[in-house]
Each structure stands twice: as C-alpha cells, then as structure tokens.
Write a structure and sequence with these properties.
heterotetramer, A mainly alpha (about 650), B mainly alpha (about 500), C mainly alpha (about 475), D mainly alpha (about 100), C: about 475 residues, mainly alpha, two-stranded antiparallel sheet, 20 helices, globular, D: about 100 residues, Helix Hairpins, 3 helices, about 75% helix, elongated
Chain lengths: ~650, ~500, ~475, ~100
C-alpha cells in the first residue's frame, strides 16, 4: 500500500485553481463552479479510498496504526540536518482530516453553485475555494513542521481573499485585513517556535520530533524561561500560532469579523477546516506537548481552551447576527477540542481526551458546516444576517429548518446526534483530569444549548417578520448539501472512533459512562428549555432577563471590549507609539543628520565668504600670515622651536 | 572576446549606436533589442556555468579572464563568475529588460533616457563580473552616477533635491569605499585581485579599520540603517524604470559588495563586528517596516519596505553561517524582483491616476484587474507568502539566524522575525485602501487597462518570483555551491 | 654644438616667436586675422615636432637640464597649449581681428610657454627664477589684455602685485638657500642642504612662490579674481597650463633638493593639501559665475595634486604627472565650453546655462565629460587620475589625507553637479540659442574630449610616465 | 669693505628692509606705494645675495649674477605693473588698492 494516488487529492484542486483563476473570466460562469465541484468530488472519493485502505487494509502494525510517507521529497535544504521536505504523510489524524476537509469542501462547492449564483466574481470564488482546499489538504498531510507552516500561511491568505471577497465593502476589507494580521501575529509565535525548536532539536521532521528517543523526549533540557525548557518555550510559541488560527482567546477577535465573507466560506474555512488547524497542530505534535517539561505546555493548552470556550459561549448568547453567534459558537467548540487535548495523556484510557478531541473535531466539522450552510440558506432567503429580520421561517424553508434543528441538537449534545458522543467524551476526559476545567465545560455545554436554540427559535419560530419577498426554500444544489450533512450529523456519532484515532494509535474502546452522559444531556436540555421559554414565542421575557444581568449583559454584547483593547494596542501603541515616532525620527533625526551635514558645509562656505574680499592688501596679508603659521608650525614639529620657551 | 566581457560590451555598443539614432521608436527598439541580446547572453552564461559546474569544475570562479591593465600598479581587468554572481546577473538582465519595456512611453529625451539607463546597466553588469577591486569600484561608480540624470531629468516631485541627495550620499559612501579599497590593497600585498586578497589574510588591525568602511560604504547603497534616507526621497522622485533598476538591482550592488568585498576579504573583522552590524540590520528591518506603515505615498511605502527587506539581507550576512548567507543572496534576488515589479506597477498606476497617494485611490481591483492582481501577488511575496520567492529567502535567513543560540543574537533575530507582522500590516493596508474598497473617484471608473509592454514588463519579473518560490532548489544549489569558499573564509578566521 | 640640440624645444619656440614678430610687420591690416592661423599652425608643427625623441643631458654647467621626463612634460604642456589655441580660434579672429594687438597675444602667450620650459628644465635657481618670471609677468599683460574692460585691468593689477610679493618672498628664500649652501645649483644645494631652522624657513619661503603659482590656500587669493576678470582663454591658460607647469617645476625641484628636508616640506604640504582642498571646495560651492566657479574648482584640484607630491616616490611623481595631464584635458574641455559660450552670448553665469543640453547638446556633453572628469567619475580619465593620487598617498600611509580627500571629492561632486543640473535638469525661458562653432574650435573641444575619454583607460600612457619617472 | 660691519649686520638690514616692504604692502593703499614696497623687498633680496656672495662665498659669483638678473627682472616687472595700473587708472580714475574690489567673494 503506497498511497501514491494521494497526490491527486492535491493536484486536482491545484489545477482547478490555476484553470479557473486564469481562464475563468473567459468562460461561462457555471463551468468554473461545476469543474471545482467535480474535482472536489473526485478528491473526496480519493480521500475515502485513502481512509478505507489506511484503516482497513493497512490496519494495525504491531498493534498500532503506522505512519506512512506516501511522498517525501526534499524541497529546500537549510542545513544538512534541517531539511524542508514536501510530502504526504498518512496517519490516523491526517486521514481523518483528509476526509473532513474534502467532504466539507465538496459540499461547500456544491452549495456555492447555488449560493453564489449570479455573483460577478463567480469564477474567482471557486478559484479561491480550490486554492484554499489544496492548501488545507497539503497542510494536513504535511510531513514536517515547516511544510505545515508553508501551507498554514497559504490557508491564511486564501482565508484573507475569501473574507475580502466582497472587496468593495469596506467592512469586508477590514475584516479580511484583521483576520490576516491577527493570525499573522500568531504565526510570528509559530515561526519563532519552529525556529527555536528546529535549532535545538536539529530537525523539522514530525516523526523525529515526536519519537520517544527523539531530541525532544529523550532528554530533559534545563529550564530557561518560567520553568519551561527551551523546548517548552518553543512548543508554547507554536501553540500560540495554533491558537491564532483556531481563534483562541485572546487571539479570537478576527473570527467574528471574518463572517463578512460569503457564508459558504464561513462554513468551510471558519467552521470546519481552517480554524481547527490549531487543534490539528497540537494533535500532530501531541507526544511532544505531552512529553516536554512533563506536559506543562498542555496546561496552557487546556486553560486556553477552557477560557475560550466559556468566553465565546457567553458572548454568543447576546449576539443578534446569526453568523456571529455561529462564529462564537465555533470558537467555543474549538475551545472544547483544545481543552480535550490539554487534559489528555498518551496511553490507553489516559489518551481519552485526544481521541475525544479528534472525534469532536470530526463531528463538529459536520454539524457546524451544516449550521453555517443552513444559516446561509436563511440569509440567502431573507437577505439579512440579523435575527430581528427573521422569524417563523419553518413554514417557508422546511428542509433548512429540519437540518438546522438536527445540527442544533447535535451541538447541544442531545443523543443520538453526533455531538453528544464527542462532547460527552470530552467532559469525561476533563472530569478525570481537572474538576475546575470540567465545571467550566459543563457550564458551557448548557450555555451552548441555550444560545443555539435561541437562534433556532429566533429564526424558525418566534414572531413572523413581514418579508419583502416571500422567502422560499433554496435550490437543490444548496439543500442537497444540507441533507447530506444532516444525515452525517445523525450517524457519525456511532462510529467507534477509538478504533481509528487515538493518542497512542492503539485500539481503544469507548464506553459511555451513564452518569456523565446523563449529566451532560441534562444540562443541554435545560439550556434548550430556557431558550424555549424565552424565545419560542415573541415575548418581553428575554429582554427582562438580559436586563437582569445589567452591566454584564452589555459587556458580553460588546464582546468584552476585546476589539477596543486591540484597537488600543494597534492604533494607540503601534501606530501612535511606534510608527509615528519612527516616521518623525526618520525625517528629523536620521535624515536631518544627513541634511545637517549639507547645511553645515554651506554655512562654513558662507562664513568664509569675507575672506575673499577682493582687496589685494588683504590677500598679501593672508599670504604672509599663512606662510608664517606654516613656518612656525614646521619649526615646532621639527623641534627647532619650542613654544613653551 | 570572452563571454563575460560581452556582457559589458553589448550595452556599450548599444549606447554607442543609440547616439546616432534620431527616431524615437527606433531608439526604443534598439534599446530593447540590445538588452534582449544581453539577456540571452546572460542565460548563455548561466547555462555555461551550470554545465561546467556539472562537469566537475570546482574552481571558485569560472569563465575567468585576466587581462593586465596597469601593470605597475597590479591593476587587472579580471572577470569571472560564481553562482552568486550568475544569479545576480540573471536578476539584472531580467529587471533591465523589463525596465526598458516599462519606459516605453517616455517621450521627453527618449534617447538620452535609454542611454543613461543602459549605461547604468553596464555598470551593474561590470560590477557583478569583476573580480578585481579596481574594476569593481569603477563599475560601481559608473552604475551610480547616471542616477543623477535619470532622476533629475525624468523624475517627478522634488527631483532635483532627491537626485542630489541620492548622488551625494552614494558617492560619499563610495568615497569611503575608496579608502577601504586602498587599505585592502596595501595591507594584502598590493593586489586588487579578490582571490589573492582573500588568501593574503590582512592583519587584524587593518581589518578593524577598513572593514567598517567597506561595509558601510557598500551598506549605504544597500540602504543600511541609518544611512537609508536617500532611498525614500530618491525612489519617490525617480521615474518608474529607474526606481525598478535602482531598488531592484543597484541596491544589490551594495549588499553584494558588502558581502563579497567587506566580509569575504576581511573575515576576522567581520566576525568581530558581526553583532554590532547585525543589531543595526535588525533595527533597520523593523524600523523600515514601521516607517512604511505611516506613509501614504506608494513609492515611499515601497522605499521603506526596501529598507526593511534589505536590512534582512545584511542581517542574514551577519548571522555568519551558510544558511543565512544563502538566504541573504536569495533575498537579494527575491527583493530585486519584487521591488522591481512594485515600482513598475506604481508607475503604471501613477500614469493612470496621476496620484501615488493611497488615500485617494480605491477599488482599483475592479477597474485595473491586471495591475491590481499583480500588485497583490507581489505584495504577498513581499510579506513572505509561501510559494513566492520572499518566503524562501526569508526562511533561509531566519533559520540561519537562529543558528546562533546566544541571547543577543536571539533578541536580534526575534526582532527581525517580528517584521513579518509589520510587513503584513503595511502591505495589507495598501491593498485594502488602494485596490479594494469602493471606487473613490468618478474618473477612476474608466481607466485604461494595462497595455502590452506593461504586461510584458511586469510578467517578465513576476514569473521568476513565482518560479523561485515554487522550486527554489536549483537557485539555492546554484548559490550554495559558490558559498563554500566564503563560508570557509569566514568561519576559519582567527576568532 | 651638438649639445645645443638639447634646447631644441626652446629654440623652436623662440623661432616661432621671432617669426611672428616678422609676420606682424609683413602683414597688412586686412590680413591681420590670418595671424591666428599662422600662429596656431606653427604651434601645431612645434607640438608635432616635440614628439621627436630628444637626448638627455645638461647645458651651461648644469643650469639647463633635460631628460625624457622633462621633455615629455613640455610635450604635455604643448598639447594643452595647442588645444587652447584651437579653442581660442574664434575668440581671436572675431574679437581681435581689427586690432593690431592680435599678434601680441600669441607672442606673449608663447613667451610664457617658453618661460615654463625653462622653469621645468632649470638646473639652478637662477634659471628657475628667470623661467618663472618669464612665465608669469607676461601673463599679467594677457590678463589685462582686454583694455576696454575695467575688470580685466583690475585682474591684471591684482595679478602682478601679488606675483611681485610672492616672487619677492620666494627670492628671499632663494637668497637664504644661497646663503646656507653657497650655491644656486640644485645638485650642489642638495648636498649641503640639511635641516636647520634657517634652512627650513628658506625652503618654505621658496616654496610659497610655487604655491602661489599653483594657487594653494592661503596663497590662492588672486586666482578667482584674476580668472574672473581675465579674458576666458587667459583664465583657461592660467588654470591649466600655468598651473601644470608650476606643479611640474615644484615636483622636480623637490625631488632634487628636498630629500634631506622631508620633515620640513612634507608636513607643510600635508596641511596645505587639506586646507587647499577644503577651502577651495567651500568657496566653489557658492559660486554663480562660471569662471570664478572653475577658479575655485582648480584651487581644490591643486590640493589633490599635493597628495601625489607628498608620496615622494616614482609612483607619486607618476601620478602627479598623469593627473596633471588629465587635468589639462578636463579643464580645457570645461573652459573651452565656457569660452565659446561667453564669446557667442556673453553669458557667464551658471543660471545662464539652464537648459543648455536642449539647445546645444554637444557643448553640454563636452562640459559634462569635463566636469565628470574633474569630479573623478569613471570611466572618464579624471577617475583614474584621482584614484592613482589617492593610491600613492595611501602607499605612504597618509590615510587621514586620503579620507579628507575623498570627503572633498564628494563635496566637489556637489558643485560640479550643480552645473550639470543647470545644463540638463533645468529648463529655461531664455536658453542659450543654438550656435555652431568653427572647425578649429570643434577640433579643440574634440581633442580634449578624446583626451578625457582615452587617457585614463589607456594604461601604456601611465606605464610610460612611470618608466620616465623612475629614471 | 667697511670695517666692523659683519655679515649679520647687513643681513639684519636686509631683513628689516624686507619686512618694511611687506609691512608697506599690507598697510598702504596707493598702488604705487605697493609697487615701491615690492621693490623694497626685491632690493633686500638683492642685498642678501650680494652679502652672501661677498662674505660667505667669495669663491664664486653666483650671487652677483643673480642680483643682476634680479634687478633686470624687477625693472621689467615694475614697468609692466605701472602700465597696467595706468590702464586701470584710465577707467577708474583711482589708484586706491582698496577700491579695486569689484572682483570678490
């Protein structure tokens, strides 16, 4: 089994990107869409083939799932040891990601054919989608940390392009810019982390980095910074990169704004794939995170995840823009995944968190994509993002309604929908590790159910808005993906995930603890119930409740002023505090020095002007004086006369 | 006639012919033809070089030609190339040819413009093939001085001031360089031959004295902080092709010279002072980037961006290891190409909108798709997007810089690396303000699209940017093959 | 008798002067302007004749000496004078065609050249003194040649008064040297000339006379005033031929008598060099009148020449001669342009040159090359000249001087570029209209351009001088 | 030869004459005075030569010869100078050296 064919998963979207990008303008718009969709479908099938062959035909070698390098070519040699390979690495998580990415990408492609219908930049949109897909796919199959970085940046830029797709809208432009710069800032940490790690470990290669006798795990490095060894520092920095991409607190501020992009983009990039890259990165380096400095960095991961998920959930309850609610929800769910990784160990049952995290990544991709696509369908119908413009849509859009409901149930952790299984495992893992973390997550589970059903009721029930155009169900290209995803959401929870992806790659059987399951379902149902009471019917009850929270509500609604804090840092400190002084110094001091030289020369020149008076007697005087000075000087230099007497 | 000298002779012949041509169109065609032949010869040189390296020729410089010039002073016309020089020659040929096309619409004193431009090119070609310090210095000045006329006559804005400032600062630097060259000559046994000097091992005291002179002397042309102030004013006033050539190629003379002459010939002092100059370079990197944030004139933005990117080159050199050297040379090429495209595009935009103020433009992506898209791609290259040349170069420099584990190097390195964020800020700011957003002025609605010579010019430079970014290995190995003696020289110094 | 042939150059030139006197008598007033052709032609023949090899030796008991080096110095001067004559062709024919004084101009000019020959070939102080006076007194007449102009007369007065003072000081120095050594022959002086207080004073006083001729600061004050007041060809002659001859004389005499006194004259020249370069440049910065501007520029150039003299070896000697030759061509090119423009339009201010390139591209190009050569920008000859001067200074570890020198090169570049700016960058409402030069003027300019372009790169020339210098 | 007068006495005189000439040149305004000052300086030089020859080197006549030429040249110089001064005077009606400053700067 050499998996050589996997290269086509990457090549196909690349070709589509080039083809539609260069020639799309000259073709009928539809063609770009269908080509893109077809190529993604093929890629998806190839990904399934990969999964099938990897999980069922390769199976286990010595009890664990092997790592297979389908390709590994030297791309750039920095030094003899630091080699930047490009390749395709096949292991459980990369196969998982291949499946997730291709599936969601395919469905989003399909969906976009309808959603983007009639848009001027139709071909561009598909071109960018392909660019994103290929970057993301190459990211997940990366064989070394530099390859990840390479495509990490590329997904960043495709995200930038897609967020800024409606580039004549200033808000979209600034959202795109913000997304890029914030993640870029995080990537700075990532890059420094890579550089530190690679220098001290002497390799970029994942296999070497995470192997037990590798440079990271075999020895204990002395602490250099806050009790962390240099490897710990490097891994923390790498995690910063991951946190930026995955919109973890406090680097999350770009994600809600990123909703300026077309909704399918939000579904693909900002819900299912790119934003989980950070989780994937931690998972990819998990043995290192786990082993270095006794897992100290993992605490950072866990707490970041926990705080983010709580933080996002609180904000999500107050937002009116449904896409923003979903965005915060995404952030919250990714917080879960991070947390799960953070509380995980390596072997057997200890590795539950890892498995749960990946599982949640998988299920979340499906139901969150479904939510976004559903929301897109709604937005498509009512031409607004705001909840106040919606209401009672269940009658007009039955498919959207049902699928959306399924997704809401899934995210709320109601069995038998997929979210229940994965979230339950996460809670179980957290419970075993750290009760505080568990408590947070437990609360968040309830909040999640509440805010999801808040928007659910807000959109499909509640007061019926007077619509200008009667909303209608979306075309087949849009509703078909919804259905597919809904089916997936219902069933994928039953996959025995421990058989496929575990921290130590050995077989692990999930068992559901009835206590834990009951508790988590219970809190979810409470959340739903509260939402039902508050939002099912039009009432003033909700406003009353929000008033009850007073200042707290306002803070949450204003997203805890994180944007303003950033604004302060970016504008006040960087622009006014650094860039402006730099510009001033450059103009006045550095350049002023150079101009000053010229000025001094000229002034000297002016001062000398009178010397050349035109009077011959004075010339003679200077002549004689000069001669005398020279004579005395020379005599003095030769020691013939001595002015000291 | 050996093939390398042909690189100098062809432009000289072109200039000579141009003197006698009256018709403007004819002038353009002859200039383009001459530079086209030049490009072909450059490719031929590259091919030759790669072929003889492939056949196992391991001498440091290939295609050497030694002709005694001033015998009693031991001045030779001594030419030869190694991989680095070949790469720089390729860069020069491409940018120069693109520059010829970009300036197709110059109407005022066309002939003189092309003559000056090609004289400049002659200097640059001569500089890169020279292995004798005297000829190198000679060509260096030949390359610098036409800038005065080019900016002064065909420039815009406060061109007289800018031209004078640029020329004086550069010539002042070259004056310093002259002292250094003389010092090198006398302290290495009266020779200008670089190979001999390298083996002569100048006494450390002399190195300490002359290394800073040589390094800064070349550094000024490479816009080394804090000697960069000629560059924003100069670039802002220069006509398009001149900005292209100047930022793209001419400034590389500075960096190449600092590497080849200052560091290679005076390795001990280079080692001793590396930390200081590395700090200077790191400050320059971040300083240039921050400087670019506040600017509103496109050319100023790009000029400060150049300060930042060229700072990285010096930074890479001063990291003192092979990876970083490779990165520095790559960055020379990468930045040369990128900035050439930048200036070409800015010229095109200015020609249409008659402004370079980003605040006044907007939504150009819609009206000028070709220019805007190329601008975005190059912008991305400039902020180090993988798949484009900037990434390859920067990563080499960063990886190389991180090979020095002591604290001070770490601090400088992190400072330099952090420029990637600031770069993103100013690039995206421009892209956001200028290319995206709504169209700000009615008259921008129907600007003329790019014409053929503009497309040729821009693509000529853009394609290598992508080629290097996607398949860096051939270029990397071309450079690294030739780095061995330099690395050897710098690492085996007494310190 | 055979010995007398060593003085061939001098005899021929003397013959020409005498012939011109005869011509002056024979020609009618109507044909007077033909003197220009006759004199120039004769001098051209003389120049060509000068390139025939000449023996080495001395005459008059060592008062007159000649070697190939001396001979070639004279040849360099000849070429310079010839170019100058060609450039002044129009000036002479147009401006002086109706005057009887036309022939005088040539006779005086040739007499000064003759003086320079003797100055160079002098073997003792007397011969040197006579040569010097022959080379400078008639110049006063030339400076004041334009009798109709007050400025011309003023310049003449200034020149002759200052020349008087300087030669008095110099003679006082010579008299002291005679007092110390008992001889006026260089060879004998050298034997008994050692460092004492008096000998130092004597040498420095003597050198001040030469410094006056070369216009070193602070002995230079006459230079700009005289250049500005004098007719342009005379300024040109003063700045080029006269200065080069004085440089040659200085270096030759120092080589003969200065060996034992290096601690005296080297520091003096060192500081004079710095002062000359710097002050000359600082003054040149502000000048608006082209002649005055070039005067200060030539002051500054003299400072660079001193670097080669300071080196005091074959290489230094060679670089000085080499540079002087190049300097002659460069300055003649610039002065040539200034001269024709001044003659045709009467304009001498820098601002008048605005937009010159657009109306008179060839003149502007000649000027450009000349200025670049003066500024020391490759690939024109000035670069090589300056480089070798710096090289010879660096060879003797005069790095401070070299550094100050290169700084001054940069400053000088600024004001040379000012002229370039006027000619190329600026546009003018009233540009200098296009005009055509007569063919001899064209040849004169072309010759100087060829010199500028070729001399630097043509290394055998340098090697030849070096070979001469090392004997 | 006058008894009791040695070489240094004469030298002192000549030096004094020289500096008187110099002083005169720097202080006087009249151009003719300036010329006379120059003459004074030249004469002191002549005196020097003669004295040196006479007292120190009676064996040769170089000093005398030099003096002869010196006198001749000085005469020529003065003649030329006066000629030019007259031509200046014709135009300016002044022989004040300080008013002769139209060329300056």
């Amino acid at each position: 089994m050499d998996f050589k064919f996997t290269i086509w998963i990457l090549i196909l979207p690349t070709l589509v990107f080039l083809f539609t990008g260069l020639l799309g303008k000259k073709m009928p718009a539809k063609i770009s869409g269908w080509i893109g969709t077809a190529s993604m479908a093929t890629a998806m099938l190839l990904a399934y083939k990969t999964a099938y062959e990897y999980f069922f035909q390769v199976g286990f070698v010595d009890g664990i799932r092997p790592t297979i390098f389908a390709y590994k070519e030297v791309w750039m040699k920095f030094t003899d040891t630091l080699v930047f390979d490009m390749g395709i690495l096949i292991d459980p998580i990369s196969v998982l990601m291949l499946v997730v990415v291709t599936t969601v990408s395919f469905l989003v492609h399909l969906y976009s054919i309808g959603y983007m219908h009639g848009d001027q930049g139709y071909y561009k949109f598909f071109s960018f989608l392909s660019l994103f897909s290929v970057s993301m796919l190459a990211l997940v199959v990366a064989t070394n940390i530099f390859q990840i970085y390479f495509f990490w940046e590329l997904v960043g830029v495709s995200s930038y392009l897609l967020i800024g797709f409606y580039y004549d809208k200033p808000s979209a432009v600034s959202a795109a810019k913000k997304a890029f710069i914030v993640t870029r800032f995080a990537d700075l940490g990532f890059l420094i982390g890579i550089l530190l790690l690679s220098f001290h470990a002497g390799t970029f290669d994942f296999m070497t980095l995470v192997s037990e006798d590798g440079p990271l795990l075999a020895q204990t490095a002395p602490p250099v910074f806050m009790g962390l060894s240099i490897f710990g520092v490097a891994l923390s920095l790498i995690f910063v990169g991951g946190a930026g991409k995955s919109a973890m607190f406090p680097l999350h501020i770009w994600l809600p704004d990123a909703m300026e992009g077309p909704t399918p983009v939000s579904a693909l990039i900002h819900a299912a794939t790119m934003v989980v890259a950070g989780v994937y990165l931690v998972a990819r380096l998990f043995p290192a995170f786990q082993g270095v400095d006794g897992g100290a960095v993992l605490h950072l991961v866990a707490w970041t995840g926990a705080i983010s998920s709580l933080f996002a959930a609180i904000i999500a309850m107050t937002q009116d823009d449904i896409k923003r609610v979903l965005a915060y929800s995404t952030m919250s769910q990714i917080g879960y995944m991070m947390l799960a990784l953070g509380v995980s160990g390596m072997e057997g049952h200890h590795g539950l968190g890892y498995m749960a995290s990946m599982f949640h990544l998988f299920t979340h991709a499906m139901f969150k994509a479904l939510l976004f696509l559903g929301a897109g369908s709604v937005i498509h119908a009512v031409h607004s993002n705001l909840m106040k413009d919606m209401g009672g849509l269940r009658k007009y859009m039955p498919i959207t309604h049902i699928t959306f409901l399924i997704a809401c149930l899934a995210i709320s952790g109601v069995p038998p929908f997929s979210g229940f299984f994965s979230k339950d495992e996460i809670l179980a893992a957290a419970f075993e590790q750290n009760k505080i973390l568990f408590a947070i997550e437990y609360a968040v589970a309830g909040l999640t159910a509440f805010y999801m059903f808040r928007i659910y009721f807000g959109i499909f029930w509640g007061k019926e808005t007077v619509y200008k155009h009667t909303p209608h169900e979306s075309p087949l290209t849009m509703s078909l993906p919804l259905l597919i995803l809904a089916i997936a959401t219902v069933f994928i929870g039953f996959i025995p995930f421990g058989h496929f992806v575990t921290a130590d790659r050995a077989l692990y059987d999930i068992h559901i603890d009835p206590m834990m399951a009951g508790a988590s379902v219970g809190v979810g149902l409470i959340g739903i119930l509260v939402a039902y009471i508050l939002y099912k019917k039009e009432s003033t009850l909700a406003d009353g409740v929000s008033e009850m929270f007073g200042q707290g509500y306002t803070w949450a609604k204003d997203k805890f002023y994180m944007d303003e804090v950033y604004q302060f840092f970016a504008h006040k400190m960087m622009f006014a505090g650094v860039a402006a002084p730099v510009a001033w110094i450059d103009k006045n001091i550095v350049d002023g020095f150079m101009n000053g030289i010229g000025w001094i020369t000229e002034t000297f020149s002016m001062m000398l002007e009178d010397w050349q008076s035109g009077r011959v007697r004075q010339y003679a005087f200077s002549f004689i004086l000069g001669l005398l000075v020279i004579i005395f000087a020379v005599l003095y230099l030769n020691g013939i006369i001595d002015f000291k007497g | 006639m050996d093939i390398l000298s042909l690189l100098v002779v062809i432009p000289m012949l072109t200039v000579f012919i141009l003197f006698f041509v009256k018709d403007m169109q004819m002038v353009r065609i002859i200039a383009a033809a001459g530079m086209f032949v030049e490009t072909i010869v450059t490719f031929f040189v590259t091919r030759n070089y790669v072929a003889s390296r492939g056949s196992g020729d391991t001498s440091e410089f290939l295609m050497t030609k030694d002709f005694t010039w001033f015998e009693s002073l031991n001045i030779h016309y001594f030419v030869g190339v190694d991989g680095i020089a070949v790469a720089m020659l390729l860069l020069t040929a491409i940018v120069l040819l693109a520059g010829i096309f970009i300036s197709w619409n110059i109407e005022d004193l066309t002939r003189e413009f092309y003559i000056s431009l090609i004289i400049l090119g002659t200097g640059v070609f001569g500089f890169f093939i020279s292995l004798d310090l005297f000829t190198m210095f000679l060509f260096y000045e030949v390359a610098v001085i036409p800038m005065y006329l080019l900016i002064g006559i065909w420039g815009t804005g406060p061109k007289e001031y800018a031209a004078m400032k640029l020329t004086l600062m550069l010539m002042g630097a070259s004056a310093m360089l002259l002292v250094a060259i003389l010092g090198i000559y006398y302290f290495s046994g009266q020779t200008f031959n670089m190979q001999e000097i390298a083996h002569a091992h100048m006494p450390i005291v002399a190195q300490r004295f002359f290394f800073p002179m040589a390094f800064v002397g070349f550094g000024v042309l490479g816009a080394l902080f804090p000697f960069h102030t000629w560059s924003p004013d100069g670039h802002a006033s220069a006509p398009t092709a001149v900005s292209m050539l100047h930022a793209g190629v001419l400034m590389k003379l500075g960096t190449y010279g600092a590497f080849r002459v200052a560091m290679y010939l005076m390795p001990d002092a280079a080692n001793e002072m590396s930390t200081f100059f590395m700090g200077l370079a790191a400050i320059g990197v971040i300083y240039g980037a921050f400087g670019a944030i506040r600017q509103t004139d496109l050319k100023y933005i790009n000029a400060y961006s150049s300060v930042s990117h060229l700072g990285l080159i010096f930074f890479g050199m001063m990291a003192l290891n092979k990876t970083a050297y490779t990165g520095a040379v790559l960055q020379m090429i990468s930045h040369g190409l990128m900035t050439a495209v930048f200036f070409a595009l800015i010229g095109m935009l200015y020609g249409r909108t008659h402004t370079r103020d980003v605040r006044k433009m907007g939504g150009l992506l819609k009206v000028l798709p070709f220019i805007a898209v190329v601008y975005m791609i190059i912008g991305m290259a400039s902020l180090g997007l993988p798949g484009l040349s900037g990434f390859v170069a920067e990563m080499h420099i960063f990886v190389g810089a991180f090979q020095n584990p002591d604290t001070i190097h770490r601090i400088f390195s992190i400072l330099a690396v952090s420029a990637i964020v600031v770069t993103a800020v100013y690039i995206l700011r421009v892209v956001g303000m200028m290319l995206m957003g709504p169209i700000k002025h009615q008259e921008f609605e129907d600007l003329p699209k790019a014409v053929w010579y503009e497309k040729v010019g821009a693509l000529l430079v853009l394609l290598p940017v992508m080629a290097i970014g996607l398949a860096p290995n051939w270029l990397v190995s071309l450079i690294q093959d030739s780095l061995a003696p330099i690395v050897e020289q710098l690492s085996h110094s007494g310190y | 008798m055979n010995n007398f042939l060593l003085m061939r150059d001098e005899f021929v030139l003397l013959g020409i002067i005498l012939l011109l006197l005869v011509v002056e008598i024979l020609l009618t007033d109507k044909d007077k302007k033909n003197v220009v052709g006759i004199a120039t032609g004769l001098f051209a023949l003389h120049t060509a004749f000068g390139f025939m090899p000449l023996g080495e030796g001395s005459m008059f008991g060592g008062s007159f000496q000649t070697t190939h080096l001396h001979h070639n110095m004279k040849n360099i001067l000849n070429v310079g004078v010839l170019i100058l004559l060609l450039q002044t062709w129009t000036w002479a024919r147009v401006k002086w065609s109706n005057r009887n004084r036309l022939t005088e101009f040539y006779i005086i000019l040739f007499s000064t050249v003759l003086g320079m020959y003797y100055m160079i070939s002098a073997g003792d102080f007397l011969m040197f003194f006579l040569g010097l006076e022959l080379a400078s007194l008639p110049v006063a007449g030339l400076v004041a040649f334009d009798l109709a102009k007050k400025r011309s007369a003023e310049a003449g007065v200034k020149f002759i008064l200052m020349a008087g003072v300087s030669s008095a000081v110099m003679l006082f120095g010579i008299s002291l040297i005679y007092g110390i050594t008992g001889s006026i022959y260089f060879t004998e002086v050298a034997q008994s000339f050692h460092l004492t207080g008096l000998s130092a004073i004597a040498l420095l006083m003597f050198m001040s006379g030469l410094a006056f001729k070369i216009s070193l600061v602070p002995f230079h004050f006459w230079t700009p005033d005289v250049y500005e007041g004098a007719p342009v060809p005379v300024s040109s002659f003063l700045s080029v031929i006269s200065k080069a001859a004085a440089v040659f004389a200085m270096i030759l005499i120092l080589f003969q008598i200065g060996k034992g006194m290096t601690t005296v004259w080297k520091p003096a020249l060192f500081w004079l060099a710095i002062l000359t370069m710097t002050v000359g440049n600082l003054f040149a910065l502000r000048q608006k009148n082209m002649k005055r501007f070039l005067a200060f520029s030539s002051v500054a150039q003299a400072g660079f020449i001193l670097m080669g003299i300071l080196a005091f070896d074959e290489m230094g000697l060679t670089s000085v001669i080499y540079f002087s030759a190049i300097y002659i061509f460069s300055n003649l090119a610039t002065f040539g342009v200034v001269q024709v423009i001044s003659l045709k339009t009467g304009k001498e201010q820098m601002d008048d040159y605005n937009g010159l390139y657009r109306t008179n591209p060839k003149l502007a190009l000649v000027m450009l090359l000349g200025l670049f050569s003066l500024a020391g920008i490759p690939p024109v000859a000035g670069f090589f000249g300056k480089f070798f001067l710096f090289m010879s200074a660096a060879a003797h570890n005069y790095y401070l001087l070299v550094i100050i020198g290169v700084i001054n090169v940069t400053i000088s570049l600024y004001y040379y570029l000012l002229v370039v700016r006027a000619m190329f960058l600026r546009k003018s409402d009233k540009p200098i209209a296009f005009f055509k030069n007569e063919w001899p003027v064209q040849i004169g300019l072309a010759l100087s351009v060829i010199g500028i372009l070729v001399l630097g790169m043509y290394s055998p020339f340098y090697e030849y001088i070096l070979q001469l210098a090392s004997n | 030869m006058i008894e009791g007068i040695g070489v240094f006495d004469v030298l002192a005189v000549s030096t004094i004459i020289f500096f008187v000439g110099l002083f005169g040149f720097v202080t006087r305004k009249n151009m003719i005075s300036l010329l006379i000052s120059i003459e004074l300086m030249l004469n002191s030089v002549a005196l020097n030569f003669v004295v040196f020859n006479k007292f120190l080197y009676p064996g040769n006549i170089q000093g005398y010869i030099f003096t002869l030429f010196l006198i001749a040249v000085a005469a020529a110089e003065v003649a030329l100078a006066i000629a030019i001064i007259i031509s200046f005077y014709r135009m300016d009606n002044s022989i004040d050296a300080d008013e002769m400053d139209s060329l300056s700067g």
